[in-house]
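Weekend entry, working from home. Most of the wet-lab plans are on hold until the incubator is repaired, so I used the time to fold the two sequences that have been sitting in the queue since the last round of cloning. Logging both here for the record. First:
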Amino acid sequence: MMLPDKKFTDFIEQNGLFERDGTVLAAVSGGMDSVLMVHLLKSSGYNFAIAHCNFQLRGTEANADQEFCRQLAHQNNVPFHAINFDTEQYASDKKISIQMAARDLRYAWFEQIKQQHNYTAIALAHHQNDAIETILLNLVRGTGIAGLHGILPKNGSLARPLLFLNRDEIQKLIAENNYQYVEDSSNASVKYARNKLRHEVIPKLQELNPSLESTFENNLKHFRDLETLLEVRLAELKKELFVYEGDDIILKLDAIKALNPQQLLLFKLLQEFGFNETAIDDLISVLNKHSGKVFEATNFKLILDRDKLIITPKNKVIYEAISIDAADHSINYGNYKLTVLHDDTPLIIKDNPLAVSVDADKLVYPLNVRGWQQSDSFCPLGMKTHKKLSDYFIGQKIPLHQKSEIPLLINGNDEIIWIGGYRLDDRYKVSKNTKKVTIFELYKVK
């Protein structure tokens, strides 16, 4: 049977998941969902590599899954990446569940592989039924409005090109094309919350509504639109209400009192600073009463000061900018040591996120190392357009209080060369015209 290549490519293009001129990193477990994704990527003409995680939780079965995925990559003549995790030890060390540990480990590794090999996106094989399960889990756990959008087709570098299919459609395509796949025995267990929903709750809901997937798909669109509307409103409010004074953010109390709906908007405005809904309820209850009242989150304090609310870091860390001359071999900045090495060959550093090689002829000395500023922007490696550094940090999920600690390498023309440990500016990459490079490497010293 023919695969739905057009629906697949249309969904990718309509949602801006990834371009044809790059290489996608496909996360493959060996199950039917990810196997179908591999065949669709292949038949639709996309360049891709396969990444497989062995969480070492199912003994020989897990090893067999890894070998299956290796063979699948070989059959499709694509690169293969695999890793073994001590998931139980990680979960024990972090005091989190096995499922959460597996999630943390795999997403961090996928992003690492993506950056090392310059893959354009990470393709995950979630489908419509996964989205339903996620919404129901979020409703049960109480994750708020954001939890209602389910699984987004695109979230940063994560892309989900199978969200146009449901589980029955995937099973039918697998069977009719006689594709081989592996079955994870743990999927049948109901000890995990998601499996309990899948096997016990959703079948009951389908008895009430046989078209559950399409109904939820329509609901998802409405929820996503509502969330977008809220995000637009919040962006407007931040521009209106947030006044930046050094590391502090000032909000006028009159403007806070005028918010409608007050609790929701104030919570969303302050959520990124670590304040939960209980703290917001307590804050609202004293807006007219207690000047000088202080509310504390992990890294920030809220201070009621007469006619204003002050958001301030608990532990302010301000590092002075450091100058680098052409003859310097190393400098110290905050918790880092930065070494400088000049090389007469166009060497490219790929496997170390704390090191980077740049086109030496594009450097204008003296260089500087400093922390980020509100107006900073750069051209991320692989892109030709500017991106605000604050938006990049949000996409990387870097906590607000950590942003100022990240060293930025600044050229003498005031352009960002490198976000230390994260991303090179595309304008300074090593190219075919590069004659010599300068290599910068960061070391944590504290």
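Second, folded right after the first finished:
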Amino acid sequence: MATRWRVAVVGGGITGLAAALRLRDRAPEGTEITVYEQSGALGGKLRTGELAGGPVEFGAESFLMRDPAGGESAAVTLVRRLGLAERIVHPTVGQAALAVDGGLRPIPGGTLVGVPGDLAKVTAVARPTPEADRDGGRPLIGPDEDVAVGALVRTRFGDDVVDRLVDPMLGGVYAGRADDLSLATTMPALARAARVEHTLLGAVRAAQAATPRAPGEPVFGTLAGGLSTLVDAAATAAGATVRRNAAVRELTPVGPGWRLTVGPTRDPEHVDVDAVVLAVPARPAARLLAEPVAEVAPRIGELDYASVALVTLALPEPALPALSGFLVPSTEGLLIKASTFFTTKWGHLRRSDGLALVRASVGRYRDEAQLQRPDQDLAATVHRELSGVLDTPLPAPVDGHVQRWGGALPQYTPGHLDRVAAARAVLRATHPTLALAGAGYDGVGIPVCVRSGETAAEEIITALEGSGR
């Protein structure tokens, strides 16, 4: 008679919760699932708070509706699985702008994360160099090659396109810089096309054609009531034992399974399980694997992270443009790198009292010293810079909130996917009952993290079935 499975999920963010739910749905009845979260709250960077009497996101704001192949994204599938589909809402204002040359200019259409598919459309914000994008008689990159986004785009379209378009777009997502970030990880569709096409313009157009979107189809969605409702529903549906304030400090192989050392050094708790889903950032994962799987730790531990702060202000009846927000190139010299006009962008958040919620993102990779400022200083600087970009004095905020996310955003350098694949290959060969999951390996965004957690859960189920347990 098979014994009952015991599976530990280390990390209570959306990746870990998606893994726990998939285990509950697919593993044998009676499987014991325990989620260990070192903080006091589940959800990781999904956190809905309250400001000036209304809900507001202090972390991730929305999710993509479609996956790269054009199907329903993993986030939407999860929302449906949890019975929350009727809560999905979409932006009512989609046009965003770039803060360049002291003013706001609409972000040009027809780009792929800022990389143009039509050079004529971007001339209002950047000066491309079309003569540099010549057909050299071979694909832009080799079949297994990865390059930095900035290196490719600068060579083909010039510095202006990178500095004023691509960099702010990537900075808004990763808080990183195009010259550092991996093409294969941050723009996989473009990387695939670049292995076939001979010009960057051709590669962008091929990547866009491979993922068509119906006119008017919403790109993003969120949940009325906030994304924390997704967290709560996933935790409930998973039926797992949730251990908050429970840091896992060591992982030790015990036969085909694992022993977890949990809690403070002076009073540790030892827990034996059959399998582990390790859904924590790469660096803490590397520390846990340094002893049991020394070959894997350095492959994932070299991943660096950027820190950011999200400053949200409640402003009484400000004069805001009809935009969802704006992005700021680093060349503009502002502390703000992006701003979202919540109550303009999301119709369900608009208030009858005229109060507007405006959020600014602060912090770029390698510029974390700016985040050492006190909350009050950050909020005052954001207010001043917003007034400058909008060219109008904004009213004093009636409320505000500063959310700091230390080490929040992975900085994927070229070769990242190969390093992760190599690490996972070692684990599958030597320790198949341990699986890595999360943004540190597979990419950022709620759908990617959900899919990563679900895939890790499937690998654990396959490994335990194969062991005869």
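Plan for Monday: verify the second prediction. The chain has a mean pLDDT of 95.
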